[in-house]
Amino acid sequence: MNVVAATGRLTLDAIGEIGRIANFAARGGTAWFVGPFYWRAFGGALARIGYASLPVVGLTAIFTGAALALNIYEGALFNVEAFLPQILGVSIVRELGPVLAALMVAGRCSSAMAAEIGTMRVTEQIDALSTLSVDPFKYLIAPRIIATTLALPLLVLTADIIGVYGGYLVSVYALGFEPTHYITNLVDFLSVDDVTSGLLKAAVFGFLISVMGCYYGYKSRGGAGGVGSATRTAVVAAAVAVLASNYLMTSLLVEV
Amino acid sequence: MASKPKKILIRDLDKAFGDNQVLRGVNLDVAKGQSLVVIGGSGTGKSVLIKCLLGLLKADKGVIEIDGVNIARQTGGDRRLMAQQSGMLFQGAALFDSLNVWENVAFRLIYAERKSRKHAREKAIDCLAQVGLAPEVGDLAPAELSGGMQKRVGLARAIASDPEILFFDEPTTGLDPIMADIINNLLVERVKALGATTISITHDMASARKIADEIAMLYQGQIIWRGKPGEVENSGNPMVDQFVHGRAEGPIQMQVRRDFTSRR
Ligand SMILES: Nc1ncnc2c1ncn2[C@@H]1O[C@H](COP(=O)(O)OP(=O)(O)OP(=O)(O)O)[C@@H](O)[C@H]1O
Ligand SMILES: [Mg+2]
Predict the structure, then answer these.
(1) Using an 8 Å Cβ cutoff, are B100 and B93 in contact?
(2) pLDDT bracket for residue B79 (50, 70, 90)
(3) Which ipTM was obtained for this model?
(4) Do B66 and B144 have their domain in common?
């Protein structure tokens, strides 16, 4: 009986929290439907989230592509020279590129957003914003959400290219494949849909990551400890949101 | 006094955080162009009172009228109209640490009034000068300033767009006596020059006497006394008396361990 009650309570709490996050996301995502627009804040967010994430996303992609090539080579039974670029390309473009890039950005940026906004909350800077007639959702939240949603597909596109290149390096220099074969096999097999479905996922991931970072920062309370736990929660929530939404979207996209 | 229109009127204002009933029926009013100073012990809810007036905290019950309009139940856009005509100095300054000092001071001009950055910068440097800060300070980050300097930047930010209502939460705390007096003069002069209505919180009785048209004391969630600065010395109220003269013994019992205080 107690277990049932506890489970019920937990479920209700979770539903309530999801509702609050959805409400927050709607407010933050639509804050820029009307002006004023704060381009300086947007540019700053784009540089921090998009441009500064390039190295870590690139490194993740190149090593993953390289390791994947070895694994496929090991597992393939026949015609591996045609097979390897195809499997590698599809895996990276449809699945690994978007998910791994999103997880890296979740670790890097949702924590930073939660810490920044959380510190602003506990030092009353967010209160100060409203006393200066500036809407925190327009100045703080919307620029970050829009910047992340736009930046992630671009990061994933970069990750796709670098990941495939990592596979190329291993195939050509370690496994002795013919370079032109690798490229023609890959290009012939990959469809535009493969790429766009990955980029579409990436946009959704970017939205979710920034919403989690902003939400947990915005509602943090009580000094450094509060900001610390907001940061922790934001990273975990962002990662879970990425993985869960990935499954959901994949099951929808695969059926089409 | 009674003939002047009330700029701010507060009736039966209640605010609690969980079990902690902070404000218990506050009644207060301030006439247009007047300067009211609120005094009271630490933790009695002075900052909470101001935050309720600004709409940063939502009062549980009661009426807050600004120019005769009840804003206690307003939220969002309407409340922002109120924010547009008021300026606030936070107790902890609350400067934006991602922006440099002049951008902080000019924040409302740049981001709410959409003035050019050049114009806003000139105005910011001018406001910094009024609080005794050199133009070079404008290019520093808030984290590079001393506590007292941060306070003055916060003050410059509050007055930068000439608001009709000004709230100062401990404007002279952390300043040396000379700078405190300069700030006091500035507050008095701003109020005179702008006809601004101000509510200030302070523990500094010298400052209170200088800037106040009236002084009100908050104790246990209520305004227990109000009067002219000249009357505060001989208020006849034991609580006010104890506070003004800063005595540990009296009707106000601070929450401290007795054995600890007696040993000091
Ligand atoms: N956001 C909040 N959440 C919970 N309790 C709060 C909050 N803000 C203030 N309080 C409580 O309200 C009471 C009054 O706080 P307030 O900051 O108004 O005191 P104060 O009169 O300004 O004191 P001081 O002179 O030290 O600044 C305190 O007991 C404080 O714990
Ligand atoms: Mg206070």
Answers:
(1) no
(2) low
(3) 0.87
(4) no
Comparing C-alpha atoms, which of A86, A84, A76, A140 is closest to residue A113?
A140
Distance CA B112, CA B106 (A): 10
Q: Does the CB atom of residue B22 touch ligand 1 within 6 A? A: yes
Same domain, B107 and B201: no
Domain that holds residue B168: 1-85+163-233
**pTM for this prediction:** 0.89
* B194 in any annotated domain: yes
d(CA B125, CA B130): 9
Give the total number of structural domains in chain B: 2
Q: Smallest CA–CA separation between A202 and chain B, in Å?
A: 29
Question: Which of B51, B90, B108 is closest, CB to CB, to A133?
Answer: B108
pLDDT tens string A68-118: 999 999 887 777 888 899 999 999 999 999 999 999 999 999 999 999 999
Task: Tell me: cis bond preceding A36? Omega within 30 of 0 counts.
Answer: yes
Q: Please tell me whether residues B71 and B36 are part of one structural domain.
A: yes
B99: nearest CA partner in chain A: A41
Residue bearing tokens 């509702």: A19
CB nearest to A134's CB, from B56, B94, B111: B111
Cross-strand partners of B90: none
Inspect the interface and report whether the beta carbons of A131 and B87 lie closer than 8 Å.
yes
pLDDT digit string, tens, across residues B202-255? 988 888 999 999 999 999 999 999 999 988 888 888 888 888 888 888 888 776
